Amino acid sequence: MSFHGYVRPDGSVGTRNYVLVMPQGIIAKTICDFVPGTKTLITTDHGSGRTQRDRETIARVLIGLGRNPNVASVILHAASPGVGYPELRAERLADEIRAGGKRVEILDPAQDGGTYGAIVKGMQLARRMVYEASKLRREEVSDAHLCLGVKCGYSDTTSGIAGNPAVGYLFDKIVAAGGTAMFGETTEVIGAEQTLARRAVNPAVAQAILDAVALREELAKATGLDIRTVNPVPSNIKGGLSSLEEKSLGAIHKAGTAPIRGVLKYAERPVGKGLYFTDNWMGSLSIFAGYAAAGANLVLFQLGGGGVAGRTLLESCPSVVAPFLWATANPKTYAAATDSVDFYSGTVIEGTETPEEAGERFYRIVIDVASGTFTRSETVNYADPVEIYLQEPRF
Amino acid sequence: MPAKRALVMHPSDNVATAVEEIRAGDEVAIPLQGASLTLTSVEAIPFGFKIALQEFAAGATIVKYGETIGLAGQPIVKGALVHVHNLEGTRARGDLTRRVER
User: Fold this and answer.
1) Domain A18-135 belongs in CATH node 3.90.1570
2) Tens digit of each residue's pLDDT (9 = 90 or more) over A31-43
3) Among all residues of chain A, which has the CA nearest to that of B18?
């Protein structure tokens, strides 16, 4: 199959067409409030007082979001607390984003008439840039240009039975079509790592998977805590999951059956196409922005929900420029929040659809969304702040 | 009354996941390849929770997806609910690690 997307100068294809204004702060926010068709990154993680490794992670997020195929052009400003560090200088970020062939403009309050001057200049620039972006037409392209990132959350036993397997079917189809699919959540691989390692394309990748899991398990043990007081999280236990191993073994079904080509850091862009494991954290405010920075042009949240009654509206998790899609296999979750759910696979449990039929239906929904159909959460004007996955102490 | 449904994920599993609300004393049918295993629940098994397909001695391995999901923390009878009260996860357990070190 194919979808209709926006072809970028580097050959990547967007499912959306935004002007991105970064980093966080009043300049970016005010410009975006004034100009439709723009997106900004809302986050408290600006890099000040952070180690060089953490600042590189922030830079990877900013550069990656700028290079995301859903972005037509970028405005950067030089008024963030962390901007004085070499990794986060606006010129450095701009150069790396421009390497993908995109237009990048820089606002500098020191040269553009202060904060007010930078805002006004940015409003004018952003208006022109969204106008130019709007002239671009969608073109029919191969599914090989799809790049998906997934997280499963509020997991319950429906996640492992019918929710994650539907994602796995979808991932297998996309990888078979030459596309890219990313999964991760290292804590939720503990207990299932051998199964994943056997699917690695070579021994080095297998070892990288085992090493990532071993480090996470050592850190968990070093707390001295019963992991079940942390993860499985309370909603998992309320939904019927009894151990981290059980959660992990259900969670990895979302990775389908394709060979695993590599292990990525948070917000790291895969070098080739295929299936990738990302050594990231499950936090929903963190993980999707990381996938978007890695190049995802669409992200999925596979929701259990058995342990969270009363959620009749599912707002999106922050993915900045990637459309965000909700999937669930739990009939109660679906009944409670029907108009928030993009894809329901509880039909497999109910016996009204085979896993293959559900997976094919999911694939067609993804193609529609990639071609411009809104996800349900795109009909709600709300964005939580992004929590960039930073792992080092702050000073 | 028709039997209630529970699913196994792998032929070697020794627990099944309820996909209906099961009450104490209900007949439970587990579809297997070409056949169906039936047993009687000894207590309520809520939707999505696990039922023991066999008797477990304390310390016996509990298998789902064909893999170990934990050990029986106490003896478990066939048809009983298997959850955090009687299933002990063994991975990433900082509390167990400390106990060993003392």
Assistant:
1) no
2) 999 999 999 999 9
3) A157
